[in-house]
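User: My instructor asked us to take a sequence, write out its structure as tokens, and then describe one feature of it. I'm not sure where to start. Here is the sequence I was given:
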Amino acid sequence: MVDCSEIFVGMDVSKDRHAMAVAEGGRDGEVRYYGEIGSDGASVRRLVRKLERPGSRLRFCYEAGPTGYGLQRSIEGLGHECAVIAPSLIPRRPGERVKTNRRDAVKLARLFRAGELTEIWTPDEAHEAMRDLVRAREAAVKDRTRKRQETPTPGSGRASKRLPPAIRTAESTSSCPGTSTVRQADKPGGALVALTAKTRCSPATTRTRAHGAVSPASSRPAR
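Assistant: Let's start with the prediction itself. The structure tokens for your sequence are:
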């Protein structure tokens, strides 16, 4: 019996377990489900050693996903080829809805042997670390922007609702906040209320109220 020149291994990977299927080289080669192994490095090394044959070439593949590129680096470190496949470009039959680990592994091995899978570019460890750093910075910037938008500014409705009840009552009952709220400056939050009141009253009105002067309309002589 002559050994096949190539052996194609399809892997349906997950966080805890990997489902494996093996397709012998050649158009009429056998495609069989191998079983499941652990996702740890020791289990992967044992599987590779069992599949190795003299004069044969092992070729592994699995779908890109949350497991990352660590599995690919481990297999390539053992001296074998490993391709990461784009999930969106895998051929699918119309009406194919049932998905199991076993079916996915067998399908990957069969399509990989037929050359119908599209391999994606995989970064090295330095490039992947830089990519993670950029993503973390973008997330931090978005979080900072969201926090700034949630923080109330002085003078806004949200800021006045957080003031102490006594200060908030004095501000709402006064005809002109420039006179009633300035007296609250010695209390907690009073400085904020005084600053808010001054911005909402015109200088002329505040000055007239403070000195007790009559309004221009009342000072006109009667006809």
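For the description part of your assignment, you could build on this observation: The first helix runs from residue 41 to 51. Try explaining in your own words what that tells you about the chain.
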